[in-house]
Amino acid sequence: MASEVARHLLFQSHMAAKTAGMPSQLPDSEQNQKKDNTRSLTMSGHVGFESLPDQLVNRSIQQGFCFNILCVGETGIGKSTLIDTLFNTNFEDHESSHFYPHVRLKAQTYELQESNVRLKLTIVNTVGFGDQINKEESYQPIVDYIDAQFEAYLQEELKIKRSLFNYHDSRIHVCLYFISPTGHSLKTLDLLTMKSLDSKVNIIPVIAKADAISKTELQKFKIKLMSELVSNGVQIYQFPTDDETIAKINASMNGHLPFAVVGSMDEVKVGNKMVKARQYPWGIVQVENENHCDFVKLREMLLCTNMEDLRDQTHTRHYELYRRCKLEELGFTDVGPEHEPLSLQETYEAKRHEFYGERQRKEEEMKQTFVQRVKEKEAMLKEAERELQAKFEHLKRVHQEERMKLEEKRRLLEEEIIAFSKKKATSEIHQNQSFMVPGSSLRKDKDRKKEPGYRFELLCFDVRACETSDGRTDTEEGRGAPRPRGGLGSVWRRSQGL
Amino acid sequence: MSKGLPETRTDAAMSELVPEPRPKPAVPMKPVSINSNLLGYIGIDTIIEQMRKKTMKTGFDFNIMVVGQSGLGKSTLVNTLFKSQVSRKASSWNREEKIPKTVEIKAIGHVIEEGGVKMKLTVIDTPGFGDQINNENCWEPIEKYINEQYEKFLKEEVNIARKKRIPDTRVHCCLYFISPTGHSLRPLDLEFMKHLSKVVNIIPVIAKADTMTLEEKSEFKQRVRKELEVNGIEFYPQKEFDEDLEDKTENDKIRQESMPFAVVGSDKEYQVNGKRVLGRKTPWGIIEVENLNHCEFALLRDFVIRTHLQDLKEVTHNIHYETYRAKRLNDNGGLPPGEGLLGTVLPPVPATPCPTAE
């Protein structure tokens, strides 16, 4: 900083020596700027735009900052405790069960404020990581979650009406990977997970529960881990060393990776202070003691020195990579088939035409199918109609025939009735005649009795003599109640009945 | 101004469980966060320092355009603003050079540094504006230039493989010089500002204010403000973009009292009361440029450079550029309105009737 001020003063004095109205200086560094048509200028006084970073920062303070941490590690390894210790707060959380069937991610957002800085901190925890018997599916949910956050941001960026400055950035800025303090080497699951995450997020590996390892073992363990990571090509986050002010400390920190941490929110009295520590029968492990564990280093690197760089890397490297892959997947390229620069617009137009053509074709197809089906159905219905009609006709005919038969029968029956009544009438006449000759009448009675419909009952027998009427026939007398006239008169009553 | 984002602002706490693989990417809801109290100092506020360092390393771009009839003192004012020979003055032109037939756009870039802050300043001059006999549509080349810069930025942004830092050539601020007639605005002024206040931040400035007395000045300013309001011209800082009450009161004060700034420019120094000040020497006295009693140059400089520089850039980026982008993507029929690119790669389901089932 002092060098900058000195340079500025030098310029000022240089300028003051000249009179106003001279053309601008052309220092050496200007060579490479010539092509930009830019010149370096010196100012004769204080203009005031050095407050520009302040203006920018003020703006950011107004908007607030966002920071998202993803903690990956087995259940019970101390993730929540470490986060609590890092931020010196008791984030509410309870112990998770070991019996989840799948790995799930749980995200929680907290608003922290320190002096005038408002930080929206999101902690994403993996629940059930490494608990299953079959761990093949363990890392996929994590990868999917990270991708989903990138996707959401990409969607927002590609909208027509977008509001990026208002957007709550949920992309993961750093992933703390918790390694079990076995003392031997990385587990296969760890290796696989880190390999699948290293191109999507900044990974900082930490050795959890570091109080389980002794100091000498710890050194060996760290070396083993780092060599394993390097030999497997896992790219963990390297603290940036391009800014002179923090280059030295970052470089030394890079050598201490992975950090061996101990987390604790319990306070124990050591000396005359209350410090965060874990108390054992054989001693007290102090969290903030650099000899005991690397917690302070982790906090320093993560929060105090490189938070902005982590966010920057996420946006410019990981997100851009994701975006590039996603857009290329969709078929958009920057360079067309003739190696001309192809704009997104043109590609999209081309694709649109293609899809519209496709759609037209499909529409036609569907229309054809539809028409065909309609025709078929129509034919079927017509067929059915015809059948029905035929059936109807047939039934009608049958019905007609039946009817005629019945009519026939009725006619016959009526004729029979008529015939029968005729017969009856005739037989009655005969009856009258037949009483003169009883024998025959008796016979006729018998005969008559055989005939249905009429029954003649002998009521009384008149022995008075009565006129005979020879030669006279009954027919003249009509059909009324035939009164028998004969010698041996008899009164017959005609009764209907059986 | 922003379309209703699909994030429903239901106040659900963001403890979300992502059970299945391949979850559908949903725009995350603005979470209702839990206010936690820190039990001790952690060091989160160092992020300010980190951010500041980062921005100082990358440097800034600032593009300012000056528009006005020739002879109003545009170049002088810009030189006074940035205390260096940013633009060559017209008096140093060759006498034989004619007035350009159409409005030209001349952009010259400079790199200036102060207090460790590097700024790439581009001054865009518009010689020929309002100088012809027939000045119809003389604002069109200017509007075209502004839109071209937006287009350039859009093209870069839409690339698959993007640059880390897209070079920003968009016009952040346009100083419009009003002739100090003392009466009112000219029709050309109104037309220009009407057309351009929708695409760029316009700051109206009364040039050569040393020709007016104090009363004339205040009257003229009032009249100009009234005319601008009557014609619906929104100059920077625009009322609709005031974010909170604090901004509003501050900007109201500027809008209603100080603007348009009546300025005097000069790059010559004179001795006044033992101090060397920038000023104009006349038989009746020395007009000090940076004296608030004499003119409002200092107000303009503080406004543009010291307090609102970042805001000018942000309004340009978040509002004017977004408006241009939305219009451009809509007009081209490229992207259907309201949908993102990825959401409609497949065309929507056609509305043909489904064939009846067998």
Overview of this protein structure:
- The complex is a heterodimer of chains A (498) and B (358).
- Chain A has helices at 2-17, 31-34, 52-63, 79-87, 140-158, 188-197, 215-231, 244-254, 295-305, 307-329, 344-434, 438-450, and strands at 38-40, 65-72, 104-114, 117-127, 174-179, 203-207, 259-260, 267-270, 273-280, 283-286, 454-462, 489-496.
- With 498 residues, chain A is an alpha/beta fold.
- In chain A, the strands form 3 sheets. Chain A has a 6-stranded mixed sheet with strand order 3-4-2-5-6-7, sandwiched between helices. In chain A, strands 8-9-10 form a 3-stranded antiparallel sheet, with no helix packed on it. In chain A, strands 11-12 form a two-stranded antiparallel sheet.
- A 6-stranded mixed sheet of chain B has the order 3-4-2-5-6-7, sandwiched between helices. In chain B, strands 8-9-10 form a 3-stranded antiparallel sheet, with no helix packed on it.
- Chain B has a domain at 53-263 and 294-329: Rossmann fold, CATH 3.40.50.300.
- In chain B, strand 9 and strand 10 (285-288) form a beta hairpin.
- Chain B has helices at residues 46-58, 74-82, 140-158, 187-196, 214-230, 245-258, 297-307, 309-331, and strands spanning 34-35, 60-67, 106-114, 117-125, 173-178, 202-206, 261-262, 269-272, 275-282, 285-288.
- Chain B starts with 33 loop residues before the first strand and ends in a 27-residue tail after the last helix.
- Classes of the chains: A alpha/beta (498), B alpha/beta (358).
- Chains A and B meet through helix 1, strand 1, helix 3, strand 3 and strand 4 of A and strand 1, helix 1, strand 3, strand 4 and helix 7 of B.
